[in-house]
Every structure is written in structure tokens, then in C-alpha cells.
Queue: 2 jobs
Job 1
Amino acid sequence: MRLKASLAIATAALLGLTACGSGDKETPKDTGPVSLRMTIWTANEAHLKLFNEIATEYKAAHPNVTEIKFDSLPFDTYTTALTTQIAGGNQPDLAWILENSAPDFVSSGALVPLDDTLKKTPGYQFEDLGASPMKLWQSQGKLYAYPFSTSPFGMFVNNDLVKKAGKPTPAELIAAGNWNWDTALQTASAVNAATGKAGLVVRDFDYKSWQNLASFWGGWGAQAWSADGKTCGFDKPEMVEAMTTLHKAIFTDKALPGPGVTADFFAGDAAMTITQISRASLLKNQFGWDLVPLPKGKVGDYAVFGQAGIGVFKKGKHATAAQEFLAFMTSPANSAKLAAYFPPPRTSQQTAETLAKTNPLLKPEQLQKVVVDGITKGAVGPSHAGFAELSQNVRASLDPLWQPQADVKAVLSGVCAKISPQLAKQ
């Protein structure tokens, strides 16, 4: 009941802002000292160091801005925490927004349209922003959040563990034309049997954030729901086959750690992990590693990417200053710096050579195959209006799946029975 109450508060917050915040009125100029707050979900030291360096440079040129605070909220409860702040009248000036909740925020009326500010900023090169990365964040021709990260999922590999299990590395499988989900899961299972370490970890999934499994089921062409958002996809044959394969990999073949078991790839506890290049900063030199594209699936080569936008709230204390800082933070020069962790929407910077300059740990060919090619051919992860409530209903309905004797098809049919009424309202 407490969770449902939180979701109700979050939804009411956005709906309330729609009612009182619609209409793109010009925000007043800020006067006096300005303190800006941006909510984010990373607590990574390297990320925060870069953000603070950019903020320090901005403050030096804008003496009226006395503070720029980056407020880290936990990833798994980020959107609920943010919308609860909004409901309590404590909205930040700027916020990161996950792609899954983009439809709610973009349509809410809570965000300031950014086009005019960005276009008027000298040297900003607004025309360099790619049409595809911006699509999710636009409504009626206006941009309501800057897509600072369009990051495909790839597979980081601990080659040392793979070799200990006597298996060919993913790079060797790719060279032989045999890198697919069958061989990937066989490798993961062999590593667990030979070393006791985890085989494959879908990072940030932890049997809770089910949407991260799109990086897996996308190989079967499965979707959580139809492109128009009205029809459930969990009971479709592609999803049933994908999730049956995953269930067997977890409970029979031990290719993935089961519920309640944690394994950190970057600490050397797993052979492979699915995640994005922003996590490369966690790599140490304690083992030989590689970054490769996702294995081929039933549909052949595929890619899935996550997105994140930065929006400015109309009812923030300093909306004008927040827009101006956003323009500075995402300028061509700073976009290139952010590219070390967050693949940018700027067409001129979506090249392996450009990304390699700020990603010294990654080789240009890795960046080309995983990031550049992934953006070109990939699909964005699940997003939908009312995603917070929808996501919790999916998560609760999937809980019975994470048991050894689960009836996969029946559980997935139950997911659709639960969420279809909500989807039909769209």
C-alpha cells in the first residue's frame, strides 16, 4: 500500500504540473545570488569530478551563480524520489530523466522548452544535435529535455575467467562467426562450473529492474508492448521463448546468479556483464578484459540503448539560470568531455575517433562496434506514459517467474492480464 501511495503521489505531481504549468511562457530573469540544484542518479566519483569541474568553470564566468549542487538519488527509486520532491514543492532546477519516464515528463507541462535558449547560445551548434536521439524528448516540435546520453548496451568480458573455464573468448567467437546467445550462455555456465564465479550478470537488473532485460530479449525481437503502447507483448511467442531461455540459464545451467546473489563484474566476480560504457571507469587492471557487442539472437545482430535527458523545471527557483547552465554544460566542448561516459547526441561527435579521445580505456574498434553501430541500428529501451505504476505492476507480476519450477508462459500471461487495462487507456 505504501508503494502504491508513492506512485499515486508521483503521478499526481506530474498531472498537477500539467494543469498549472502548461503554456510555454518566458521565464523571468534571475536576480541576486543563484544556487542551482540538479538531481542525478550516479554517485560515481569520476562522473561527479567531471560535473563539478564544468560547474566550477561556469561559476567563474557567472559570479551571480554561487552554487551548483549535483544531488545523487538512488537509481532504483530515482523517478519516484524525483516526482515526490516535485509533489512536495521541492523540485530541483534541473534533473536527469530516464527514457522510460520521458513520455510523462515531456507531456507534463513541467519542463521548460529548451530550443530558444540553446539556439541563441553563441557557438552552441544546435543543428549538430541528431534527430533520432532527440525524438523521445520532443513534443509538437519543441525540445523539453536535452538527451545527454544515448548509450547502447554492450558486453564487458573477463577473459581470464573465460580462459580458466577452457572456453574461447567472445572475441574469438566473433572472429569465428559464433558469437550468439547459445555460445554466450554456454560460456557463462562453464565459468560458473569451473570457477564458482558468476557467469553473466545483467547489471542493475537484480530481479527488480526488469526493463534492463530488454538487452536480452531484444535478441528474440520481443517487446514489452507494441510500438503504439496499447498492446502487451509479454505473452507473445518471441517473449515466451526469450524468457524460457533466460529461466533455464538461471535455474538449470547456472549461467546467471539466482535471486538474492550478487556478483560484481568489475570486482572480478563474474565473467561477463551487460552494461553501458559509462561503467568503464570502474575497470581496474586486476584482470584481462574486453568489450564486445551483444551476442546475436534469433533476429540476428541487434542493439538496445538507454537514454537519459536533462530537463529544466518551470517552477524551479532559477529556471532562466538553469537553462543557461544547461546550455554551457552541453556545449560542443563540454559535450566532448561528457562523451567519456555518456555518448552524446551531437552527430559530429558520434565517431569512434572522437569517443576514443575521452575514453582512453576503450579501443576505437570497441567504440565503433558497440557504441557507434549500436546507436545506428539500436532501439531504445521500454518507455510509456504512466511508466512508474506500469513498471511496478510488471515487476510484481514477474516475481513468480524467479522460482525454479515457474510456469514461464503462465507467468507472462499473468503480466499481460495485469497491465493490459492500463495499456488500453493510452
Job 2
Amino acid sequence: MKIFHTADWHLGKLVQGVYMTEEQRHVLEQFVAAIEEQRPDAVIIAGDLYDRAVPPTEAVNLLDEVLAKIVLELETPVFAVAGNHDSPGRLNFGSRVMKMNGIHIAGHVQKEHEPIVMADEFGEVHIHLIPYADPSQVRYALGNPDIRSHNDAAEAIVENIKQKLNPEARHIAVGHAFVTPHGEQQENTSDSERPLSIGGAEHVEAGHFADFHYTALGHLHQAHHVLNETIRYSGSPLKYSISEERHQKGFLIVEMDGSGNVSAQKQLLAPKRDMRTVEGFMEDILRHELNEDYVFVKLLDETPILYPMEKIRSVYPNAMHVERKSFGQASGKSPAESRRNMDPMVLFNAFYEEVKGEKATEETETVFKEVLQEFLREESDEKEGVKQ
């Protein structure tokens, strides 16, 4: 059986005030084209279909278009769960009708768990949908007062599933959680991943999923496996933060044989515009060729530059952020502290040239020096008066 595993589409995502809908459509068209070409038996979307509970109309329309293409035209069933960014009720709405058409979406945790049954030439494959839920919601749904953390919740949900686990079938779990090898605390893989819990109680032990032949996870934006190669994150299909700059985005092609042995291969998706860092002096950057990537610029100039974003956007029209690289960080100094330690004349000359478009004359420099010296002398006198 061949399955495409994807997650964290975050439709309706805003990055630095820019809606990513056009970029999302571009990569999802590639995803649909891969389905049309390779004809998988199913598609799994492991949560965070939307970026927020009430997504913009464009995001809703895009999801509708993509799912209609996959399910109705390509006749490929879709299995999806709600993520922490999704509205469970919104995704659950119309689930019975969608199920009849091959879209299986779980928004809420159910005590009476029933897997979705698929079959191939080797027998049955059971898909277990485990949507994201706060521990308090799981505690209520399962009637278990001992559930306090995300790890408790995951353990209780899996134990509930295992009560009816058919030993003759192969089993796939679909979840949205922060899973680590032993439930230990780890850093997020991206700045755009919203914490699931305050105080570090969000991590889930990978061992809870040991009885499934494959576990398809969402939430972390970098593709990787946890503990063993059958427990995997597909990662997001697109970069949503400069912290994801070095991520290779795509989806997983999962193949399962008759014994439940699994292999996973990553297929990359090409973004319409890359998201990356550009570093250099303003003078050099302005010589670059016109480029529409989403760039975060780090300037090496030590002197102030007026209206840096306007200048950068003459070369990079989709620039998202500009900052001056901190030269003082290695010594523990902040950028502001580094500027305070610079020669006042260097700062003045740079500022003057930016404003006037020409270098300060000797006479102007002399006037500035006199004013500065007078200011420093008055400041020193005031300090002495305070001491006395």
C-alpha cells in the first residue's frame, strides 16, 4: 500500500504581514500532480490544515479546491486530523457527508474509537485518527481524571485504541503532537510552531506508538523520524519562518508491505519564492539582480542607513525584514551598546551623508566637534555636581 503523508499546510498563514496563499497554492498544485502521477492508495494530512480557527475565505476555498481534486477527480481517499491551529468543530462539520465521498476528518477525540478500514491484496489496513486535543478535553472525553499532561493524554488515547486493536490487520496512527524519543523536552524545529502547553508539559513519549506499523505525525515543521523510522513527521510543505530557512520541504511517500514493514521516501516541493537570509553591505546588496524571494536582510554596515527597507525593496521587492548585524554579540554587547561605543564622528559623517547626499565639509565637522565637546563638558559638570 502506498500512502502520501503530509501535514501543517497552515492555509491562511501570514508571515511578516504577507499572506502565503499564492505560495501554498503553488506547492499544493505540485502535490496534487504527484498524486495524479503516482496514484497512492491514500493521502494523510496530520493536522494544521488551517493556520487559525477562523481562516480567511481564500484559505477555505483553496482547501475545498484541493480536496475536491484529490477525492472527487483522482478518487484518492484523504485521512486528516485537526491540529492545534485548527477549529475542531469547523473541521468536523459535514464529516458524515465527506466520509461518504472519501474524506475522513477527525476533529474531536472520541471514547468509542473506530478505525477506518482500508484493504489491499494483503488484507486490511486500519487507519486510527487521533486529533490534537488539550489534556483537559481528553480527560473529559475518556472520563479519566488522571490525565494532566499531553503525555498522559496520548497514553490514554492509545490504550483506548489498543483495546480493540485487530492483531490480524496492519495499523497506521495519524496524530498531531510534540513527540520526542522518551518524552524529554526539546526545542521546536521552527519559530512558527505554536507551543502546545505552557511550562514544558507538551512532550509525548514515542514509545506510546510502538504497536502501530506506521505513525504519521504533524506539528513540527522539519521532516524527521522519532525513536525509529516508523514514527515520522512529514514537515510542512512550505517555509513559514526564517528559522526554517535550511529545511527541505516536501512530503513523504510511505510504502507498506503485507507484513507491515514500512519504507518512507521524501519528495521535495519547489516553492514559487524561496525564503532566505541575505547578508552584506548595503552598497553591495543594491548591486544584486532583481529577485522576488522572501528575504530577511542582515546589513554589515556599521553606520546608520536611512530608509533601509525602501532601498532593499528596489532589489528584493518581497523583502520581509531588515536588521543590522550585531557586531558586539560575541562580546556580549547589544546592537545599541555597540553603536554607543562607535566613534561619534563616524556616526555623524554617515548620518550627514545619508541625509544630505554628500560628505560633510571640514567646516561642518569642526562645528559638530565644538558642539559635541560643549555637550560632553556640560554633562561632565552635571555629574560632578551630583557627586559633590
